[in-house]
Amino acid sequence: MPRHLGVIMDGNGRWAQARGKPRTEGHKAGVEALGRLIELSARQGIEFVTVYSFSSENWRRPKEEVSFLFNLLRRYVAAELERFVKNGIRVKVLGEREGLDKTICGLLDQVESRTASGTRMQLNLAFNYGAKFELASAMRKIARQVASGELAPDAITADMVGENLYTRDIPDPDLILRTGGEKRLSNFLLWQAAYSEFIFIDQCWPDFDEDTFRDVLLEFGQRQRRYGALENR
C-alpha cells in the first residue's frame, strides 16, 4: 500500500466531449470522482494524497473556464469542509498564492485552519502549482542564505532543497497515477517523484471508481522498489 499517492486528474474535458456535453460538466463529474478518491484512500489507510487540482499553466485556458473552476472550488470547499473535519481529513494547499484573488486565498486559509487537527489522512491540493516554479523558489531561498553568509555553497544538500519545497513536511510520493491516457508529469512534483512508481491509464478522471482504484493498488503491489539497489534475492 502506498503511503503517499499522487494523482494527476486528467481527462475531464475529453470525458464531457465524448458525451456531447460542455467541458464544465466534465469538471463537475471530476469533483465527484475526487470525492470517491478521498473516501477510498482513507478507507485503505493511505496517509497522504496529493491531487493536481489547478496548475500554474491552467491560466492559459479560456477565462470562462478558469472562472468556472474557481467557483467550483468555492462550492466544493463549502460542501465538503465539515465532512473533512468530521472524518479527520487534514487539507494542505501546495502552490503559489501571490496574485490570487483575496477571496480564494481566504478560502484556502480557512480550509487549512479548520482541518489542521485531522489525523486520519492528509489531502494535499496542488493549486496554482508548478514544480519548476517550486524548485526556483527553493533555489532563491537557499541563494539568499548563501548571499548573507549564513550558508556555504558546499553545504547545500539534496535534503536542504527538499526542506525548502512546499512538501517539506510530506514524504515523497510512492505512486503517481495519471488518468486520461497521457504519459507525462506535466510539471507535477518533479523533484519529489525521483523514485515514485508511475501508473498511466486511459480512463478519463470522471470515470475513476473503486474498481479502478483496486486495479491501481494491485499493480503497485507487484512493483519492486529498489531505489537504485539490486533486486532482493
Q: How would you explain this protein's 3D organization?
A:
By secondary structure, the chain is an alpha/beta fold. The chain has a single domain (4-130, 172-221), classed as Undecaprenyl pyrophosphate synthetase. Helix content is 44%, strand content 15%. The protein is built from 7 helices and 6 strands, in the order E-H-H-E-H-E-H-E-H-H-E-E-H. The chain has helices at residues 12-18, 23-44, 63-87, 102-114, 131-147, 158-163, 210-221; strands at residues 4-8, 48-55, 89-94, 121-129, 175-178, 197-200. Strands 3-4-2-1-5-6 form a 6-stranded parallel β-sheet, sandwiched between helices. Helix 2 runs parallel beside helix 3 (63-87) and helix 3 packs parallel to helix 4 (102-114). The longest helix is centred in the first third of the chain and has 25 residues, at 63-87. The protein is globular.
Spatial order of strands in the largest sheet: 3-4-2-1-5-6
The N- to C-terminal Cα distance equals 21 Å
Our count of helices gives 7
The helicity comes to 40-55%
CATH architecture field? 3-Layer(aba) Sandwich
**Could you give a short account of the major beta sheet?**
6 strands, parallel
The average pLDDT value, as a whole number, equals 93
CATH-defined superfamily: Decaprenyl diphosphate synthase-like
Shape: globular
**SSE-based structural type:** alpha/beta
**H/E series, N to C?**
EHHEHEHEHHEEH
Number of β-strand runs: 6
The CATH topology: Undecaprenyl pyrophosphate synthetase
Strand content: 15-25%
CATH class: Alpha Beta
